[in-house]
Write a structure and sequence with these properties.
InterPro entries: Papain-like_cys_pep_sf, Peptidase_C12_UCH, Peptidase_C12_UCH_sf, Ubiquitinyl_hydrolase_UCH37, UCH_C. Its EC number is 3.4.19.12. Keywords: Coiled coil, Hydrolase, Nucleus, Protease, Thiol protease, Ubl conjugation pathway. It comes from Rhizophagus irregularis. A hairpin with a 7-residue loop joins strand 4 and strand 5 (about 185-190). This protein is about 50% helix and about 10% strand. It has 3 domains: about 15-225, 3-Layer(aba) Sandwich (Ubiquitin C-terminal Hydrolase UCH-l3), CATH 3.40.532.10; about 230-285; about 290-335. Helix 1 (about 15-25) crosses helix 10 (about 250-285) and helix 9 packs antiparallel against helix 10. It starts with 13 loop residues before the first helix and ends with a helix. The protein has helices at about 15-25, 40-45, 65, 90-100, 110-115, 120-130, 135-140, 195-210, 230-250, 250-285, 290-305, 305-335, and strands at about 30-35, 50-55, 165-170, 175-180, 185-190, 220-225. Mean pLDDT is about 85; it is low at about 145-160. By secondary structure, the protein is an alpha+beta fold.
């Protein structure tokens, strides 16, 4: 795999992923965070096109090694691309779902990309993703403007930051697949029908999480789902039809119940609009260059003679964090033994 190159790290956040998808010109979808794998939570999210799972990377825990019994042959119905560059796993996880769901409106550019690369082998698919100006540009739209770079080549292994990795789960042609760009191929986890793939994926994710110590809680699960406002408006249309029938039959009790359901859906639509406005603001802040702002704060503190005190405080805090981190890792090592 090549080095990080021109690909930035992507934050595991539903607002970030939703904007990435929209920037690809994909229609009618959004990303939601999944807080629980219980039936009620998953039912409220349906239809679910696929799941994106984030976990701490440990050498040798790619999907093909964790599922040695699985069929890794590349089915022509499955779009699988190898990850050939660092930091690309977030976007590849999104694409692994988008390019394997025929019911999603990909938009002209992604649709043409899928058609052009359809017969490529997995490695060449990965190269095509890396070399796509659209995909790389959308991915890097979240690159932070930062003139300060930490060179970890001189750091000890204990001082290096943990590495996290994204993979996808998606049903394709009646089978559940785990798609990991670092794996040797798409992992077929067995047959599935309809929405029951969500039941089948639950123990798979739980088993992955069980491989870590109880102290490791840094997991994140995102769902690519149908746009909620579209779902709610479809339900409102169905309710309107039922209300007309109830009105014609003078069924006042049903009419009242349907009216309440309709009002609740309208409230949900307004909540979705508020949420997307929040996403827009948060993403704007993520992309904003705060360097000039920070520079001026430092300059003012220096002029007031207050900078040195803040520097000393920061040094003490950093020393404390390094010590706490070392003790935590020592504790984790002891629990393994």
């Amino acid at each position: 795999m090549s080095d990080a190159g021109q690909w930035c790290l992507i934050e595991s956040d539903p607002g970030v992923f939703t904007e990435l998808i929209r920037a690809f010109n994909v229609q009618g979808t959004q990303v939601e965070e999944v807080w629980s794998l219980d039936d009620q939570t998953l039912e409220e999210l349906k239809p679910v096109y696929g799941l994106i799972f984030l976990f701490k990377w440990q050498g040798g825990n790619d999907s093909s090694r964790l599922h040695p019994e699985a069929d890794l042959s590349v089915d022509e119905n499955v779009y699988f691309a190898k990850q050939v560059i660092n930091n690309a796993c977030a976007t590849q996880a999104i694409l692994s779902i988008l390019l394997n769901c025929p019911t999603i409106d990909l938009g002209a550019e992604l649709d043409n990309f899928k058609d052009f690369t359809r017969l490529f082998d997995p490695y060449d698919k990965g190269l095509a993703i890396t070399n796509s100006e659209l995909i790389r540009g959308v991915h890097n739209s979240f690159a932070r403007s930062d003139p300060f770079f930490l060179d970890q080549t001189d750091q000890s292994s204990s001082e290096k930051e943990d590495i996290f990795h994204f993979i996808s789960y998606v049903p394709v042609q009646g089978a559940l697949y785990e798609l990991d760009g670092l794996s040797n191929g798409p992992v077929n986890l067995g047959p599935c029908t309809g929405d029951n793939w969500l039941e089948k994926v639950r123990p798979v994710i739980q088993e992955r999480m069980s491989r870590y110590t109880s102290a490791e809680i840094r997991f994140n699960l995102l769902a690519l789902i149908k746009n909620r406002e579209d779902v709610y408006r479809t339900r409102i249309g169905e309710i309107d039809e039922r209300m007309r029938h109830a009105s014609n039959t003078n069924n006042s009790s049903e009419l009242m119940q349907l009216s309440e359901e309709r009002d609740q859906l309208l409230q949900r639509i307004e909540m979705e609009k508020v949420k997307f406005k929040r996403y827009e603001r948060e993403n704007s802040l993520r992309k904003h260059n705060f360097i000039q702002f920070i520079y001026n704060i430092i300059r003012i503190l220096a002029e007031r003679g207050e900078l040195q005190a803040h520097i000393e405080y920061a040094r003490k805090e950093m020393s404390k964090r390094i010590k706490d981190r070392a003790e935590k890792k020592k504790g984790e090592s002891g629990s393994k033994n």
